[in-house]
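hi! just following up on the protien thing from before. the input was this:
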Amino acid sequence: MSENTPETNDPTLSYDTDYEIGQDNISAYGFDVHNPVFFVSALVIVVFVAVSLVFPLTTKEFFEGLRTSLTSNLDWLFILAGNVFVLFSLYLVVSPFGRIRLGGEDAKPEFSFSAWLSMLFAAGMGIGLMFFGVLEPVAHFQNPPLFVSPANVERAREVAMAATIYHWGLHPWAIYAMVGLSLAFFSYNRGLPLTIRSVFYPIFGEAVWGWLGHVIDILAVFATLFGLATSLGFGAEQALAGMNYLFGIPATELNKVLLIAAITSMATFSVVAGLDAGVKLLSEINMALAFALLVFVIIVGPTAMIAYGFFENLSNYIWDIVPLSSPFGRDQTFLHSWTTFYWAWWISWSPFVGMFIARVSRGRTVREFIICVIIVPTLVSVLWMTTFGGTALTELIDGGYTGVAQTVKQWQPELSLFKMLEPLPWTGLASFIGIVLVIVFFVTSSDSGSLVIDTITSGGKMEAPVAQRVFWAIFEGLVAITLMLGGGLASLQAAAITTGFPFTFVLLLMCVSIYLGLREELRMLNGRPA
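and the predicted 3d structure came back as:
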């Protein structure tokens, strides 16, 4: 092993590499950046923001045209890739690889179990659950997938909930788990920098420290930034819609820009505070508020339906997951309008969520990691969708309340949550908590994303200078504003699909690489040559 190799808990398992963390870094003006990853990423993003602001219609047409092409021609790729990630992740749980501990046999978890789960969930799903938790079940009920007739009310309800949970269950979390596990293993068990390129050392060797690695990390930065911008755009739309609903604040373009700017400023302060004082604290506050809103709806809403519906919806999800996840012979409208966007969005989010999960998961076994990153959040998603989406369906089917249905019909998705709360007691208070939740989720996503992008562009440094974190926090907000002004939610969705497509291949290759790494580790732990 070279003397330049970063130290690990068990140096005998480190790769023999001459790479030194920061060897290509440039330090000046309070920055410590990796050359050329930082400069290429920053330059392209600055140019993108400038061009998009000058030519908004051209940008909108470009992204929407690209989205149509990708969803129409390569939908099968996204669907098959998602299935690969789920099956491979479940294999790791039951395989001997499951006993391998991230960081070595003697590594201890840095965070408590509850704090760890809070950060996983807040980073991975926050704004999305708030935005789509009510909207999607009602949208699928009105236009059921799998060729179910809307006239068959009971079956339409079942498949609507199953399709919603399919989009928020095992598949997205398997994508996150694959990236998070790979990064954590190669960083903590092999002593490599916490960057995407490190994952591919078993396949490409020393080449990952050259231009091949630069390209991989730059792709990760783009995917992360545009995936985050999509979420921030959804959050801004929903928060402002709630403010308009409660306080009459007009949902103008100017107010959207001001809201994104204000929340970006809050995220910047959180980023400066660091992981423990900022991200961890906000994540725990977020989970407490989300739990409070969840319990409120369970108590004042259709309690019996929610209790029974949790198990029924989980059963229907398991029953329908095969036809829903098949790329062939499916309802193409459903596939192109929903699933392909979701899978591309999750993939574009995966460098961000995966790296964030890796940073907080030292000391966990592979089995514990997979179960807690995939199974537990899936069950929470089932409960969330059953509570919020199931309540909206009960209001519509059993009570004849059409408030949420109208938001779907008129395509005002940002109002769905508040319309669902309207028939319930203490509507104003619950809606206000909903707005606060969206804003705090907004902040936690932005500050977590800034930390992750900063880590990638600094060559894997866990504690890069504060100035860099501020730079990326600001530019996340600028990209979200740019896409919002250049076409609204359609442009945001198109950007997520565009960046998610190339990164799909990176993730598929990542499965091969982590398998090779875990196999080598297991052989060494069993006392056999690697």
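The chain has a mean pLDDT of 83.
Residues 41-524 form a domain with the Amino acid/polyamine transporter I fold (CATH 1.20.1740).
cheers
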